[in-house]
């Protein structure tokens, strides 16, 4: 498997793996992208290849947001940045998988740059945050502004995980924070990203999305509750909802294999019965 990683244009992290002669697949990561503490590294690249083994025959690009995001940037502005990447790397038409905040960005990418996009899978994201999600992201933004990185990172696990992960992992993060500097490479990017998530509301453009769109999420997601997921699905003409019962926001890592199987079959054009959990 080919493996490449670095910074596009010197300021945008990327990881590339799989078969470079295969059909391109663009993965837009979630808010965690803003929490990265250094340059892209091989260990992260290897972790990502393990997260997407079902796509080993495709040319997979995991591309983050630019470092030093301009203050006031919206998810729509960020989608324009991804359109530039697609154009410069000649990936069009590209299938897109947007996860959490990446799913918010993918909505505008599909609405505004339809010629660049084949099919879209929006994972763990709705048309907008739910009420609890808004309160949580505001708290994260507040902590980030005060440099309370341990508090932010521990709480991201509490809100995203289900089961034992909610109670076991946060204390480990808090313990690590006593001995390790958890500050991200560009702290201001976390604040800007949180604000972009809070202000995201795509309801007025969902009708412009003509790209086949899969909405995949857990019905126990506390950031994007089921009504927000259905609002997204219902607003897009050619769309399908795959709802995982009893799973929270961290669908990508908690149900990796079944999720990837569903996403792959959807991107390949299968829309029949038996596709969804």
From TrEMBL:
<dbReference type="GO" id="GO:0016787">
    <property type="term" value="F:hydrolase activity"/>
</dbReference>
<dbReference type="InterPro" id="IPR029058">
    <property type="entry name" value="AB_hydrolase_fold"/>
</dbReference>
<keyword id="KW-0378">Hydrolase</keyword>
<dbReference type="InterPro" id="IPR050471">
    <property type="entry name" value="AB_hydrolase"/>
</dbReference>
<dbReference type="Pfam" id="PF12146">
    <property type="entry name" value="Hydrolase_4"/>
</dbReference>
<feature type="domain" description="Serine aminopeptidase S33">
    <location>
        <begin position="72"/>
        <end position="255"/>
    </location>
</feature>
<protein>
    <submittedName>
        <fullName>Alpha/beta fold hydrolase</fullName>
    </submittedName>
</protein>
<dbReference type="InterPro" id="IPR022742">
    <property type="entry name" value="Hydrolase_4"/>
</dbReference>
């Amino acid at each position: 498997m080919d493996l490449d990683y670095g910074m596009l244009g010197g300021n945008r992290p990327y990881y590339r793996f799989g078969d470079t002669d295969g059909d391109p697949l663009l993965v837009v990561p979630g808010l965690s992208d803003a929490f990265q503490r250094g340059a892209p590294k091989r260990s992260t690249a290897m972790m990502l290849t393990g997260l997407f083994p079902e796509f080993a025959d495709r040319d997979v690009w995991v591309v983050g947001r630019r470092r030093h995001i301009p203050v006031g940037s919206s998810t729509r502005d960020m989608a324009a940045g991804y359109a530039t990447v697609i154009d410069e790397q000649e990936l069009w038409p590209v299938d897109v998988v947007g996860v959490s905040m990446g799913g918010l960005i993918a909505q505008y990418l599909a609405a505004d740059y339809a010629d660049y996009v084949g099919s879209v899978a929006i994972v763990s994201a709705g048309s907008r945050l739910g009420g609890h999600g808004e309160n949580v992201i505001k708290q994260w933004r507040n902590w980030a502004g005060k440099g309370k990185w341990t508090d932010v990172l521990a709480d991201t696990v509490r809100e995203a995980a289900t089961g034992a992960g909610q109670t076991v992992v946060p204390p480990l993060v808090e313990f690590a924070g006593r001995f390790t500097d958890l500050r991200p490479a560009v702290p201001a990017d976390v604040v800007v990203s949180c604000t972009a998530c809070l202000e995201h509301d795509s309801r007025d453009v969902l009708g412009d999305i003509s790209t086949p769109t899969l909405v995949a999420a857990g019905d126990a997601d506390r950031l994007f509750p089921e009504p927000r997921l259905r609002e997204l699905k219902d607003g897009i003409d050619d769309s399908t909802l795959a709802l995982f019962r009893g799973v929270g926001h961290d669908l990508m890592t908690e149900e990796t294999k079944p999720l990837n199987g569903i996403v792959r079959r959807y991107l390949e054009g299968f829309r029949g019965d038996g596709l969804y959990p």
